[in-house]
Design a protein that fits this description.
Length: about 475
Amino acid sequence: MGKWNDGTIYMGNLDLERGNYILQAKPGTCAELGAAPCLPSEDGSLPEHVFLADNNKLISNFTDNWQPRLGLAYRLGNNTALRASYGMFFDSWAGVMQLTQNLGHTWPDIGRRLEGNQNKPTAGQPTPTISGKDPFPNAAMPPPDPFSSGAWYQDPRFQDSYSMQWNLGVEHQLNDSTTLSVNYVGSGNRRLPLSSYYNVAVTPGPGSAADRRPFPYIKPTNFTRSWSRSGYNGLQVQLRKRFSSGFAFTANYTWSKAIDIGCSGFFVENCAVQDPYNFNNDRSVTGADIPQMLNVNWVYELPFGSGKTWQTGNAAADYIIGNWQINGIATFRSGQAYTVNINGDIANTGNKNGYMRPNLVSDPKLDNPTPQRWFNTSAFTVPETFTFGSAGRNIMRADGRANFDLSVFRVFPLPFREGMRLEFRAEAFNAFNSTKFSAPVSNMSNSNFGKVLGASGERQIQLGLKLMF
């Protein structure tokens, strides 16, 4: 048996598909070592449902990261080109590395402890059992088995995500400086992380939720599997004019739809799987779905002054009216999707991760929404006890965006040195001071349910001078 300080990692990972705990390496007994990590049993035997990992590995290897690429370009005519491509790309583990770090200090160590909400008093326990001052009251030794405490466990058969991406497009040159391109862009993403609270009751119902768990001896805990998937399909249109005759612009329009299951990335949307055993029911648009987006930017040198289309013939007058440039960026896009939820374990499954959604009983949209009532709150009702809510995931949309950034530049040639010039810039961000409302409060248990409590997008103006020589 190893010692606690021999450099071996004594920790484990939960397998909630089989109801087992996998121990990476076997330390000595607590009686022998006197401190964790150690085995609580006197003879060093492992508890029931605890097994040593094969080859000391908590996560299985995988060797299927083949990434084929294919590209095609074909000239349809002197001014038209057809392009297509396909490729597979695997996750570089930049985000997934966090999952492996989550396994640190698990049983038979004692450096990690996850507890549910300690602010819900009961008749038998009116005060929290865990204190922030002493989160490990029995810190000297681990509990008898790993199944009474939670952690952020990861499926031992977890695989890295991959993305299949493809596009088909046509580009046509309209004249010497202007091109138009139309592209279909798509992707299919597989083996995505799907995190949820697992080993909760399989079905809603009365009585003890523990009796309806797949493995009654295991406390419900966070668990991540690579079972999710997503897809994207988009039409992208671009009209582009390179700078000529004092003018340049680019206009991009995208019409798209992005769909996934339950989770939309680590920082976009919290996992909203209501029933972890039927997660396909939560397939919907992602939290980052933007159905329509239009971006237009332009640069225009005004045709006034010496050497331009409109000139007075007077040097002083041409100096005053010449060398002006106006620029702009205009953005219009749809609002992001969000989910309406409700507090509590109404279904009585033992889930503590804010999974519940209300029932949807009518149309939540309003013809004239206001910050005080952004949607029809009466369209949502509290589900019956021991049931899941019927409202879908991400069925609501936040406020869209319409923004203009405008600027005016004026160049002053300096006569005392050839090539030296001074440029004055006046720039206005959100020039028309359009209000951009935040998403409304979407938690039905909140007293501000349906209200918009925040906004952004105040106009900002900045002035600057730039000396060029």
